[in-house]
Design goal:
about 190 residues, 2 domains, 10 helices, transcription regulation, transcription, DNA-binding transcription factor activity, Homeodomain-like_sf
Length: about 190
């Protein structure tokens, strides 16, 4: 809701600052150091100010997951708006670069170890996207393979296991984009699909 006095924008800015602070606390001190007090202190707000936005630690982690899912969705939507002829897989692959992993990603994976239910937004987003893959691509199996490759690249980069040289990564991205386009464009024989 818009209010002319600017309160809504201030609330949003404070909320974003709290989410960034939570990610920073996890990065700096580990997931066990994530407390409402540590996040409020890192964000420069009172604990009451934090509680206005997040009633408990799980609500904070859930909001972090929702924020990251929203970043990827926005990146995909922007790609599709600029390239209306492309399918959802192409937008998904390009989100690796247009919504690159942030400190929020690694913080969330650390938090997921302690409280897997708090990152339900990730599970729901992946399930929703897989439903899209099944219903809006000509070759859902190929599209799923591309999605899994894309997720694998994201996760290896996220945890620092990536050993690709920049030109290798570029080649991998180009191949995933080509396969994504192929999965969207070429009908598959119904016998193969079953």
């Amino acid at each position: 809701m818009y209010r002319p006095d600017g309160i809504v924008q201030v609330v949003s800015e404070t909320r974003e600052r709290l989410l960034r602070a939570a990610g920073n606390v996890i990065h700096r001190d580990g997931v066990r150091a994530l407390t409402l007090e540590s996040v409020a202190r890192a964000a420069g707000v009172s604990k009451g100010g934090l509680l206005y936005h997040f009633s408990n630690k799980r609500a904070l982690i859930e909001a972090m997951a929702q924020a990251r899912v929203a970043e990827v969705r926005v990146a995909m939507e922007h790609h599709h708006e600029r390239n209306p002829g492309t399918g959802p897989m192409t937008s998904y692959v390009t989100s690796l670069d247009t919504a690159p992993d942030t400190h929020l990603d690694t913080a969330l994976w650390a938090a997921a170890i302690e409280d897997p239910e708090a990152v339900t937004a990730f599970r729901q987003a992946f399930a929703e996207f897989q439903r899209t893959v099944r219903t809006s691509t000509a070759d859902p199996t190929m599209a799923t393979l591309v999605r899994l490759a894309c997720d694998g690249l994201w996760l290896t980069e996220l945890v620092g296991l990536d050993v690709l040289e920049p030109d290798e990564r570029t080649s991998v991205m180009q191949r995933m984009l080509a396969l994504a386009a192929e999965s969207a464009d070429h009908p598959v024989d119904e016998e193969v699909r079953r």
